[in-house]
Structures are given as structure tokens and as C-alpha cells.
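Hi team,

Filling in the usual template for the complex we talked about on Friday. All components are listed, including any nucleic acid strands or ligand strings, so the model treats them as one assembly.

SUBMITTER: L.P.
PURPOSE: interface mapping
COMPONENTS: two
RESIDUES: 578
SEQUENCES:
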Amino acid sequence: MTKSVRKTRLLGSSLAFIVIAIALVWTLYPLLWVVLSSFKPEQDQFAVPPVWLGSEVTLANYYQFFHNSSFLKALVNSTVITLSSTLLSLALGIPTAYGISRFKMRHKDAISIGVLTIRMLPPIVMVLPIFLLARMFRLLDTYTVMIVVGAFFSIPFVIWMMRGFFDEIPPELEEAAMVDGSSRTYAMCRVILPLTAPGIAATSVLTALVVWNEFLYALVLTGTNTRTLPVLVNSFVSEKAVSWGVMSAAGVVTALPLVLFALMIQKHLIRGLTAGSIK
Amino acid sequence: MRISGRLQSRALKEKMLFLTPGLGYLAILFAVPLLYTTAIALTQWNLLRPDLGIRWTGLSNFLALLRDPFTWETLVRTLWFVAGSVAIELVFGMVVALALNRDFPGAGIVRSIILIPFIIAPVVVGFTWRFLLNNDFGPLPYLFSALHLRFLVDPPLLANADLVMPMLILVDAWQYTPFVVLVLLAGLKALPHEPYEAALVDGAGPVQQFLHITLPLLRPAILVAIVIRTMTSLRVFDTVFIMTGGGPGSSSEVLSFCGYRMAFQSYQMGLSAAIGLLTLFVALILTVFTLRLSGGQSE
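RESULT (copied from the run log):
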């Protein structure tokens, strides 16, 4: 019996090994292609047969990206909009999450379901009225409208994720502080927030990821002054005026910062992404 | 009495202080655009023809949509996309999660690498695959011709009305299978050991163990993956926009792309609003359906 068990174990490990190898190739092939293209000189981009590496490794594509003022502008726009939306959604979402976690309320379930509904809302429903309202109030192509909208679709996510972190902390902790006469706000800031710091960090990164990558609202609401990196990349594709190499460099610049941040908080990723659905 | 009353009002003030800003913000930004778009859906409004003004036409936009076979084709195509991508991601995701659910050197790094497609902006994913699938200089069509499979890419994959949706599903699977892996892996790690030990004593093989222990115990995680992926794949827009623009013809037009095109390429505000509301309706039905599914299993 032990022999057959050992046999199936060996079979299992080899199967797992094969699956992992295929998954890695499947995942890495497109990624590697873009990364290598971004280091290829122009004449090798359209080589037939296609080549992984060009005749030389060049930084020319990155040089072009970082020396084009409209590309740099998109990088700045994406950064400003992402940071501001994230901060606004944390400022509005964290107290709400704390309130939902701590206070006894009659309509708690209704509030939770309402927040979840907004999170699940297909953006195509909202993008037209928001565009027309922004046009009416002369807010098209401004940071304001992008930040307001970014916070709108991030807050439900912040609420659900942070609520989970607050639920894990026993209420006795801030009650003890409040017995000493401090207000709930003070107790929350001094006692609870430091304890949830890792949670806040994970929430911020995930929120930033969603805002940074967002395309539909940005496509409709931004213009030449405020366009973000995804909109810039799209304009490369549609105008065809930019080389694949520069486009690949832009793709790498768009993806890299968030990939690094997200890998840093990998542990919390799963919980943030599924927040609100387990339970 | 007075003290408790004062305490109560203080508690109420506290609640308001914490809850009002966030919930108020959400409520306003949710309700105002939604009411506005409902009103727009009841009008005929061409943004490029201000001279025509905005005319109330009641439910005629909705009736026109319901009568147009194109709407139904788009709806069915969207639902196929959702069903196809969720199914593939679930199967791939389960296989990879099972393979990753063991200790081996480098497991952490492999897990990180597999996660990357999910973190990248969908726009970048779209142009990457457009590049990879390009018939003139993309590596995949070249590979196909080298393997004497040229007929597969003739016409080019993204210009082939029969293959464009499967291609979009494939790209969606590339991007979102990591998410399913993540959810299922977390579920696998939380499984108890006892049932497996008992199964081993009873001499159950790995396939039986998977079917009779792992699958039932993993059901909550599977349902979470299904619910979230269903809702997010219904939104698909970015990759369609970048890779195919709804084409060839309209063979890759999905609901959200149709709503966008109506408003920002045909400038029909009323029809676009109606399509948006139709999408919302589909989303609600799918949510109820998938939640029913997950509600049914807890009993």
C-alpha cells in the first residue's frame, strides 16, 4: 500500500510540476515580449521572423518616452489623480467602515448591501450621465472630475475592506480609552488606526491600482491636459504615429510601479479583492 | 433620564460624524447620475445637433432597443463572453491552484509571477495581445505558420468574425485566471486535514479525494470567484476597445462597448442611456442568480 501511495504522490508532483511550467510560460510569454520589445531598436520591431532580442539592447524607447513632454504629462496626471482619489476615498471610507463595524444600527444590512451594489455597478451606466454633468459644469478635462469619480468607485471598496480589518479588533480597546475620557474620534485615531496600519496600506495600494488602471471614465472625461497613462497608450494604438518600441516602453512604465507595490502587499491582496463577498 | 438622553444624542452625533460624509458622498454620486441617465433614456438627444434640442419620447428608446435584433445579438454575445471566460478561468484556475497548493522551493516566486497579468492595466494587456496576434510581425501567427497552421490565422485572428470572441475570452482568461487562482488557493490553504487522513485510511485515491472532499469543502471559495468574475467580466470594455473596436463588423460588440459607441461615436444620448440601464438590469439579474446559487449551498 505504501508503495502505491508513494507512486501516486510522485505522479501528483510531476503533474503539478508540468502544470506550473505551462502556467509560467503562458504568463511570461506576453510579458517578456513587451519588456524585450521596449529594449529593441526600431528596425528590429517588425523583423520577420520575429526576434526576442534586437541587434542591440537600447534605452532609446525609454529616452523618447521620458523626453516627450506630453508623455511625461500623462505620467504626472496619472500620479496626481491616483494619489488624490486614493486619499479622498480613504478619508471618506475609513470613518464609514469604522462606523459600520462598531455602531449598533437598525439598517446596517441595508447600508452594507447598498455599498456593495455601488461596488458592483457597471461603469457604462454611470459614464454617460457623469460626462454630461461634467460638461454642463465645465469640469471636463479637469483633475477635479477624475478625482471625484475615482473616489466614487473606490469608496465602496475601501469600506468593505477596512470594515473587515476593524471587525478583527476587539471594541474593548477603544472603550478602555474612552473610559479615560477621550472622545471616540480621538480613541479611533490613537488606538485603532495604528493597529490597522497594515490594512490601510494594503487598502491604499489596491485602491491606487484600480484608479491607476481605470480606462473608460478617463477616456471620456479627460482631454489633452489631464489624460492618464492608459488613455495615452490607447492614443498610441489608434494614431499609429508612435513606434511599437516606445509603446512597449510606455506599457512597462504604466505597469511596473503597480506591479511592484502589489507584490509587496500580496498577502492582503486576496482579502481585499474578495472583501464583501465572503460572509 | 436626562443624562441618558444626552448620552443618546451624543451617540447619535457620533454616528452621524462617522457615517455621513462617506455614505452621503456615495449616495449623491450614485443617485444623481442614475436619475439623470434615466431621464435621458426617455429622450431623443443628439449631442451634435443642438438645433434639434432634447425631445421627450417616453419609452420609445427602450422599445426600439427591444425590437432591434442587434440588441439581442449583443446581449447574447455578452452573456457568452461572461459564461465562457468565467468557465475557462474557473477550470484553469482550479488546476493551477491545486498544483500550487504544495510546498516546493520557489513557490513564493512562482505565485508572484502568476499574479502579474492581473495587476497590469487592461489597456496594456490589450495592446500587448494585439501585438502578439498581429499577422505581419506578431510572434504567434509566425509560430502558427511555422507549424503549418497558417490557415488558423487567415484571415487574421482578430479580423475573423468567428474567432474574435474566443480570442477576447482567451485574453480575459490570461488576465483574470490569476485572480481565480488566488481565491481558490486561499480556500485550499484553509481546508482541514482530518477528512484527507480519513480518506487515506479508507484507501480513497486522489481523484476521489478531490471529488468528494476538496470540491464540496471548496464550494464557498468557488462561488466567491464565480460571483466576482461574473460581475467584472460583464463590464469588459478596455480590451475590446483596444483590440477590436467591436469589429470585425460588429462581431465583438459587447454591451458596454455598444453603450459607449452609441454615446461617443453616434452621439445618441438617449439610446446610450437606455443601453446603460439595460446593462444594469442584466447585472442585477446575474447578481441575484449567482447569489441564489451561493445561498442554496449553505443549506
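MY TAKE: Chain A touches chain B through 94 residues (CB under 8 Å). The radius of gyration of chain A is 24 Å.

Thanks, L.
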